[in-house]
Amino acid sequence: MQLYFAKNLAYLRKQKGFSQAEFSERIGMSRAATALYEMGKREPTLSNLAGIAQILEVSIDDLLTKDLRPAGLLFGRNLRYLRESINAKGKEIAKIFGVNGPTYSKYENGLVQPNMEGLIAISEFFGVPIDDLLKKDLSKEGERNAGCSHVPAPRD
Question: Is residue 149 in a domain?
Answer without folding.
Answer: no
